## 1
Amino acid sequence: MSAPEFSKNIGHILVVGGCGFLGHHIVDMLVGRHSESTISVLDLRTNSNRNPSPQVSYHEGDITDECAMGALFAKLKPDIVIHTASPHAMAKDDVLYKVNVDGTKALLKAAQENAVKAFVYTSSASVVFNWDTGLINADERWPIIAGKKQKEYYTSTKAWAEVAVLEANRKPASFLTCAIRPAGIFGEGDVQTLPNIVVIGQRGSARYQLGPNENLFDFTYVKNIAHGHLLAANALVATHAMAPTVPLDSEKVDGEAFFITNDSPVYFWDFMRTVWKHAGVQIPMKKVWAFSPEFSLLVASLSEWYAWFKGQKPALTRERAKYSYMTRYYSVDKARLRLGYKPLVGLEEGIKRGVADVLETQKQEAEKKSQ
Amino acid sequence: MPKASDIAYYLLRPKQVRSIIQWKVWHQPVHERNPDKEEPTLRQCFTYLDLTSRSFSAVIQELHPELLVPVCLFYLVLRGLDTIEDDMTIPLERKEPLLRNFRANMKQDGWTFDGSGPDEKDRELLVHFDCVIAEYKKVKPEYREIIDDITQRMADGMADYANNAEHSVNGVDTVKDYERYCHYVAGLVGEGLTRLFVKSELANPALLERPHLHESMGQFLQQVNIIRDIREDLEDKRRFWPKEVWSKYVTNFEDLLKPENEEKALHCSSEMVLIALSRADQCLFYLAGLKEQSVFNFCAIPQAMAIATLELCFRNPDLFKRNIKISKGDACKLMWESTQNVRLVYDVFRRYVRYIHEKNEPSDPHYMQISIACGRIEQFIETIFPSQQPPEQSSALSREQEDSAQRESREAMWDVFYMFLAVFGVLLVITALMTGVAYLFGARFGAVADALRARRQAALAGVSSAKAEATQVVQEHGEL
């Protein structure tokens, strides 16, 4: 499939968090697609994941610093802001709130005051997930779950930031915003999903399965998510250009949130096994031990206690166990219809690339250690 | 007399027996044909229908009266065409004009054909084809037009295929060729039937606006048959599996049957299963567009059988060793389930999709793709019959809102507490006041307590005396 034609210059784009996992893929894709656009990257530190193109300039800064953001925006005068910056989900609560909510609000304010046209925010597909009930083909009609009902504080702060972004839409009338909610991100540069799964396989745990593996799950290759962001930015710019005409409610992108997945939910453990397969670990199904959900929870509790007793991080937590037999997949019809979204890279190809990257990193680390 | 092995088989499988009995006893045809009112030539046609079709005869005979005869004749015409195409004893230079002129011959009263090979199982149909022609003339012209059109296109497609020497030697080349072949022999049937359904107003006309749906109906059935019949076809020296697929696993098609190639053959078959499986969601979509029950049954039964057969073939080494088919009990259960409503047929598909998923093996090169195909079918079913609805909005949309909501609920709790405190406080004060007033007016609380105690003792005593009284009364009455 060839990607649709994109204009070489869609204006000055500022990618916040552009040295992060998702952010740098967005920068790379922007460079490839909009070769005449100016691209600025704002990140806390900008020494990793840099794109060598002269199109891209790097700026260090803290998004929670309202004054600094105002000054930076006044200097750069970006047309488009893609905001993907976020701390690690395991960070402390006050850090999460400060960066995700206060930081996003500071960026919104700076953008509103400096005539930014389009603001795309990276939210999360978990904002409608309560970690207890599965999601079956959920779409954007599902309400966000934040605060008391949301077990993960990280997700609460992502949800609140998303609400703030969407509320800022058309304030002023020329400022357009939208949110992208990716589900289960993985790919090159991933430090969480794939490396963890690969290590589990390498440790010999690939022969265990928690739950009956009937749960469909969305995993999304990072470049498809980057593609979703670029489509959203382009759509907002197009909406901006047609002002004062306002798009139909059924077609509008501004003020809207969009789930982005690989549009191919698969059974949770099938994904795991495909990762292991490409990492060179293969266990025939007749040698796999499938635990019932109840037993899995018991094992997870034991693992938690054991870790507590030894003062370590548990290898398996109850949350993780639950996650692996829970159904969690979304419909991407809205993104398909309004953004023209279609995944560029299939699930297996994404896994292949991601696992190759994990193995390469492992090799480099091993070499470093042996030196 | 049933064979002893059959009896043993069913004794061990009561569920199968139950399904068979359930189908035989409880299945009620939506419509029944009435042979007494039929012309002898039509009765003859139905006899040939029984003879030539094992699976379709029963469902055709239960069709809505409007379509009963047109569909029966449509089937016989295509069967006649197929018999000529299949016949390896007819030389190509004779076969080609026979196929291309088949439609013209159908307009000729009394046309028959006795040139089929002696082993051709359906040669009798062609020998007595005049009865089909006699009845076909009576069919409504709008239906005849559809049947004519499909017959001609199929005949031309078959002639082209037969003409292509490459095919008759090596079988089908690319996946595209394979799908083209399936289009001529099955996709076109799907089109013809859909046009008949819509013309007779028994199906949603929207089905014709989405031609890929009826194409998939035909493709799915045909592809499943081609997968299942690999051995049988190979014995007849025919190869329908595309070379593009099998050449990835073996050098000669026949090598698929060799025991040492078992794993490779399984991988090859799972690629074939994958191609077929990617049609399933469109078949399900099609079924949702049928309105009339007998038309629905007619379409749904073969589809349900096909998904079950596909599951049977998936990663099954027996596929290459012997002819396999689904058990009679399963077939009856499937027929029962696919003659009720769309939802139940979707459940059948989901069930078999899960079986396929369970048999999936990570070492298979199509492991992930099969998983994705299964997931797609499950997701499609969810879009038509969602099992989950969006819950009510109940979360705070910001931390400030969350905090103020919490503050409010805390305040509300205290409000309730204060309210109770006030009510009980007032009651307490009033009680105290009343008691005080009563005391001031000279009430003797000690005496009240004594009186109460006395009354209780009296009451206790009263119970026993009442018993004595009752006995006395009974005795007195007894004396009367």
## 2
Amino acid sequence: MIEQDLNELENKSTYIIREGKLKFSKVAALWSMGKDSTTVLQLSRKAFMGKVPFPVIHIDNGIDFPETYEFRSSLRDEWDLELIVAKSEIKNELSGFSCCGENKTKALQEVMKQYGFEALIVSIRRDEHGIRAKERYFSPRNKEFKWNYKNQPLELWDNYASRLDEEGHYRIHPILDWNEIDIWRYIEREKIPVNPLYFSESGFRYRSLGCTHCTVPVQSDAANVGEIIAELRVTTSEEREGREQDKEKEYVMQKLRSLGYM
Amino acid sequence: MRLKRTALLGQKDHGKSTLLGSLLIETGAASQARIREARRASEQLGRKFEPAFILDSFSEEREDAMTVDTTRAQVPFGNMAFEFIDVPGHEELMSNMLSGASYADTALLLVSAAPSEGVTDQTKRHLFIAKLLGIDRLTVAVNKMDVADYSRHAFESVVDGLSGFLEKVGFDPSHVRFVPISAYNSQNLIRSSAFMPWYSGQPLMQTLMSLESSDITAGGGACLATVQGYIEGPRIISGRVLSGSVTRGEKVLLLPAGKQFSVGRIWVGGTERERTTPPESFALELLGDLPVDVEGSVICDLASPPPVGQVVIAIAFFLNPPTQHMELVSMGSSTGVKSMDFLEAIDPTTCNTVPGQSPQPLQAAIIRIALESPRVIVTSDKQRELGRFVLRDSAGLVAIAVVRDNWAPGRSQSSIT
């Protein structure tokens, strides 16, 4: 896994976050309490004089891990976050396509409508999945939250698209360039608090965090940030191996993303 | 580690995605899971293993064997790391190609040596655009040597067919390398190929490593920084340094307003600093009576301000026909276009010019634009980032362009820069 220059990444990401905040009047960040979205909150604090200048949304289906909820309240207090919890109701089978797709997307649609957000900061990275590698930094979604991946707006240099269609919104992806190992190196450098589920207990840890129903731990003895970095330097497995939604069948991620999933 | 960003250019079906897939496998950068997934997808479509499927992840891309949108993939090699940007080679997807290529420092062009393939108009268009985007180091991979019997003659006829055009576009022959390869069979990618004993040069990856990129060195020159807007009150602005440095306590000029301000506190990455240098993204206080709108402004030294004006002369590549309501966009800020004249149309596949004729999509032109309000106008050879812009209308992108200093009718147009 290639380790990139953290200052360069930080500079680019803070530039994108500021651009997002300045180009749209109502912006929010999605916060899953995972390592990536927490890193984006730290970058947002750095971009805006120490305080996250927009609300953070947790799409809560009620089945996240207890550690995740605890981490949510402690960091909310520590960083003085304006937290919006969007309750998502689980109506259908408890994993994968329809769970992530319908349940979470519906909850997000409702909260976006209620608050009138024009842009959402989302913490996806290119190295997570082949489909995510095709994303833009600023990516429009239509009224139904659909991603028109066949006709994405041009993104040349720093000229990001920001023209809003009626009732559509933009997804802003400030850490698209980062690799998994860069996130952990940055967490180490910045001493960013992380969910304890990432650290090994009895030989297992979570490498990628979803809800309790579709995330499984991977074998690992890495019990702190330094050990996770050392592990990533030699691993040959993929980050999202413990995520059910990615492996059900071909193109699940493509379908989920085109329908509005993060 | 700094990444060398390399755009893969070339005609559709000349093997860009296949090459990138093979490189990821050969260098061990693709995970076993990714390779298994690509193998399974190939089998499901009833094909032999397609290395391209490592990158082409959309179902449409696999079924139609055609890259639809850009992908980036990182390849570690020796003490370096490359980020390859795979772009669509299909003419209709030219805008996606541009989007990908705009992030590259250098380029790798693929040309098929297979009988009846070779250099096409699309190959030439990609070269024209690469040069326009400021790429001046080029590696040409002559691909599909397996289909051409690994013959020296086939390789040389591609080299001969392209050299004249490369010079016409403005590439310096000493910054161009040709390498014969077979992407599908992984020949001459990271090891010399036994099938091509007549080739004495280095394999592809070693060749890419040896071509120094023309990165503009950071830190030198007069102070230039762009402004995004106010991030806290009408006092603290954010932006990015393009050259020189901005130092606390010094006097700077804000353009196009043309007013002087003192620099107060400076923050980079949330930490207070005495100065900020390229390519840092900063927050800083300007002391004085600031304008209401600072978006798109430029901060510079008092001694050497760049010119401000309302007329821009540029060389542009058109993706769509120009319309009445366009705007010029550069460094994230836009200015309305009052009018546009075509001084000379250029055919990017020949570099020949036709005076006064308005260009069609996929054609280039020297244009003169009158802007609705003044902005800083810098030629691309003086400052690469400020010297380039896009033209767009309500439907999207119309053209990409780089600023030139002047134009004289009838001047011979030997190179696009």
